[in-house]
Amino acid sequence: MAKLKSLEELAKLREDMRTRTEMRVTGTNPDRVVLSVGMATCGIAAGARDTMKALAEELAAHGIENVSVVATGCLGYCYAEPVVEVRFPDKGPILYGDVDAKRAKEIVDQHLVKGILLDHAIIGKGAGRR
Amino acid sequence: MNRYRMHLMVCGGTGCRSSHSVQIVEALNQELKRAGMDQEVQVVTTGCFGFCEKGPIVKVYPDNVFYIEVKPTDAAELVAEHVVKGRTVQRLVYKDPAGGQRIAASTDMPFYGQQIRIALRNCGLIDPESIDEYISVDGYQALGKALSSMTQQQVVDALKKSGLRGRGGAGFPTGLKWQAALKTRSDKKYVVCNADEGDPGAFMDRSVLEGDPHSVVEAMAIAGYAIGADEGVVYVRAEYPLAVKRLKIAIAQAEEYGLLGAGILGTAFSFRIRLSLGAGAFVCGEETALLNSVEGGRGEPRMKPPFPAEKGLFGKPTVINNVETFANVCPILLNGPEWFASIGTEKSKGTKVFALSGKINNVGLAEVPMGITLREIIENIGGGVRNGRAFKAVQTGGPSGGCIPKSMLDLPIDYESLAAAGAMMGSGGMIVMDDTDCMVNIAKYYLDFTVDESCGKCTPCRVGNKRLFEILQRITDGKGTMKDLEDLETLGGTIRDCSLCQLGQTAPNPVLSTLKHFRDEYLAHVVEKRCPSGVCQNLIHYRVVAEKCIGCTVCARNCPVSCIAGERKSPHVIDEDKCIKCGVCFTKCPVDAIVKE
Amino acid sequence: MSSTATTQTRFEELDRYIDALPDRKGALIQVLHVAQDLFGYLPQDVQMHVARRLNIPAAKVFGVVTFYSFFNTEPRGQFTISVCLGTACFVRGSEDVLKEFEKQLRIGRDQTTADNLITLTTIRCVGACGLAPVVMVNDRVYGRVSAKDVASIIDDCMAQGGK
Ligand SMILES: Cc1cc2nc3c(=O)[nH]c(=O)nc-3n(C[C@H](O)[C@H](O)[C@H](O)COP(=O)(O)O)c2cc1C
Ligand code: SF4
Ligand code: SF4
Ligand code: SF4
Ligand code: FES
Ligand code: FES
Ligand code: FES
User: Fold this and answer.
1) Which atom of ligand 4 is nearest to the CA of B556?
2) If you compute the radius of gyration of chain A from its CA atoms, what whole number of angstroms results?
3) For B70-92, how does the pLDDT look when each residue is reduced to its tens digit (9 = 90+)?
4) Residues A128, B57: C-beta atoms closer than 8 Å
5) CATH number belonging to the domain at B6-113, selected among 2.40.10.10, 3.40.30.10, 3.20.20.70, 3.10.50.40
6) Residue C126 Cα: closest atom of ligand 7
7) Class assignment of domain B131-339?
8) How far apart are the first and last CA of chain B?
């Protein structure tokens, strides 16, 4: 990456990058689903790395490609770590708590593949996020 | 790929369950079946929505319609109207108590407006290790704006107008601090970020650094431009390895993109940032001690004045701000100071991030506008006290703060009102205590902390706090006298008035505030030699209630020092002199015949 | 800390770090961090060496080392188990966890087991209060620890020991 030499170059880079994160902010990118995993100290301590791994493995097992798994910071729900947020295009985010490897697989098998939300795993409070 | 087109999310939190949300799930399932929709619509039980007083809650996904106070008998209408015909059931949606307006979408509800994310805007949203993602959410735009279209004075003016006050504890207006540093002439100036976060129970700075490190890097560069500094230092705790790692990545990426370094964005402005690791001394969070530590020395506070803005790091003018303070800077420049000043109260503008912990259900971070009440934070956002126990107090401000009792829960939070209550905003740690926490013991805990962390430079703090601790130790041992209570107050006052730095000046706060609000607990310890919460070991006695004891011998067999005697099927007796108060018998007795007093 | 490196090579590495410093002014604490990483602790000869290389009095180095709780002048075990006694952990019962470690390891606070495997210490908040009570083993954070988990944490250390 060459250095940005002006404000214009920065603005251009922002436009280029927008699409990459837009779906996470607005959920408007039509063909990608985003799974964000909280990976702050407490998330990692609660096992978020295993969660990440399980998500990736299960997605690969199903041959699903239009899903991005991203590591992100604290989502604020430390009591329910590890936390995973599912964003489908044009739908509000769904936040799952206490996502161990088993639940991570269920998120893929049930929610992503079959459209079935997991019972007793959703953090209700996450419902009001942006 | 979606099997279901719609989901009915029913709250299964404790509050809603007690108002029959389980039956609502059953009723909804029945109605869906009857309407032949059970293959299209799924009913799913979720955790608490944080709106328990209006529960049970049913939320329709993805329609984003939020129903409150739903009864099992409402299921038929919900299915017939909303699910089948797609019409919102108006009578079950939230009505704004102020305007009387009905609000269906949860995102529009003022309740969710209770959380406004400014400092935490990107936490949990972007990948903290990617500068590209940060740029895509307007990252480095504020720096660009400042460099291209604002003078140094205009940047300072924007901060002054915003009303932003320091989030590190004292609440000093940030704009004034920057102004003082801008005004002081010098060949060299510094910007320092205080990321020491030593206050136990506070983790908001860590979350910002781990979740959005670029927001701090960018704001430091803006501060550098505003005051005319070309060097920044982040002083970060060595106990936060992940935060250190992500900061390093952020700084390296910003350098690579030319957003740090020489001639930023084609202008004449140059700015570099380096890290300085703390080494485990709480007092180094104090700004002048921190400067000594960055200079490589012992972290002992300096006399003020001169203030760091005049004579700071290596004797040069220095702006020193907290992580969260910096995290507010970019949105202020981008959205305008008026926008920021419109949030919060008269004297405390914007939001504050609180770290909720202790005996609370939903431990976590909450960013709320200033002026919201403690009750709203603890009950709505925190979901109330764990295990259904009774709330006793909330501790704010860490070792410098105090304990706020139940009677003051409706206190609106800002710098002034918390100080008036004998507590402190502090960094924003909020530790909830329940009826099993002994307030005398908590005061002793904090004193132990300050005694440990006192740098020893001045006597009132070094010796005085030790004496305070010893008095508290006596009281919790059951050897306290009424004179001790008096001494706590007078000695506490002296330490407050005579210590050099705020560590010493505020150290008696936990004692003085508990003495004020929980005097009865102190009296119980001193006069009745009793610990009402059953915490202080030396004041606990275990006793078998003869009438209740069925003589099962369980306690006697489990007592590690064999001090319980009694025949099978007849009441047992504890030998008080031998008892080590381990509490085993108390937990083992099948009929609760053993009492703790 | 790599166990294969000889004292000699550790000193050399420390010197390389010091020589690469753009500015030695104010570098003492950062140098001590690096030295402690290399040697595991800061014995007197290391402190003297740092003083000479940075051209500052040994008394100043000693003053700094003793001021900060992060620096140790005694060797530590391969694993440092730190029980958080921060307020959030304290009110959720971390003292009981500490007592259990003391009991099972048969050592007190700030002591090391006879086989040099484990040092037991306390810290005050690692910022993972959401998972209180918290225990740190070297850099790894264990959350929601109760007295019941103590044995398995110790077993983890024993299993990895010597590596
Ligand atoms: C004993 C003591 C500890 C402190 N610890 C911290 C800390 O960990 N983090 C912090 O930002 N400020 C801390 N402060 C406050 C700083 O002295 C200073 O007010 C703050 O860094 C200024 O930044 P602000 O205006 O942005 O809040 C502490 C103060 C005292 C007296
Ligand atoms: S008040 Fe305490 S911490 Fe502050 S300078 Fe005096 S002894 Fe040191
Ligand atoms: S508290 Fe412990 S020592 Fe005392 S009687 Fe009960 S079991 Fe025995
Ligand atoms: S365990 Fe309870 S009921 Fe049984 S002997 Fe002891 S006190 Fe009596
Ligand atoms: S750090 Fe994990 S949700 Fe807060
Ligand atoms: S229990 Fe349902 S909203 Fe809290
Ligand atoms: S109090 Fe233990 S991690 Fe914060």
Assistant:
1) 6
2) 16
3) 999 999 999 999 999 989 999 99
4) no
5) 3.40.30.10
6) 3
7) alpha beta
8) 62
Within a domain: A65: yes
Residue of the CA atom closest to atom 1 of ligand 5: A74
CB B306 within 8 A of CB B128: no
Q: Note the pLDDT tens digit of each residue in C44-94.
A: 999 999 999 999 999 999 999 999 999 999 999 999 999 999 999 999 999
Do C124 and C135 form a contact (C-beta atoms < 8 A)?
A: no
Interface of A with C (CB under 8 A): 41-42, 44-46, 78-79, 81
- Contact yes or no for B357 and C129 at CB 8 A: yes
Residue A94 lies in a domain: yes
pTM here is: 0.88
End-to-end alpha-carbon separation of chain C, Å? 12
- Superfamily holding C79-160: Glutaredoxin (3.40.30.10)
Which residue type occupies B273?
Answer: I
Contact residues, chain C, for B442 at CB < 8 Å:
91
Q: Which residue of B has its CA nearest to C131?
A: B363
The mean pLDDT of chain B is 92
Q: Residue B339: exposed, middle, or buried by beta-carbon count in 10 A (0-12, 13-18, 19+)? A: middle
Tell me if the domain spanning B541-596 has CATH number 3.30.70.20.
Answer: yes
- Touching partners of A (3+ C-beta pairs < 8 Å): B, C
Using one digit for the tens of pLDDT, what is the confidence trace for B508-524?
999 999 999 999 999 99
Among B347, B341, B398, B405, which residue's Cα sits nearest to residue B371?
B347
Q: In the 8-state DSSP scheme, what is residue C36?
A: H
- Classify residue A80: in a domain, yes or no: yes
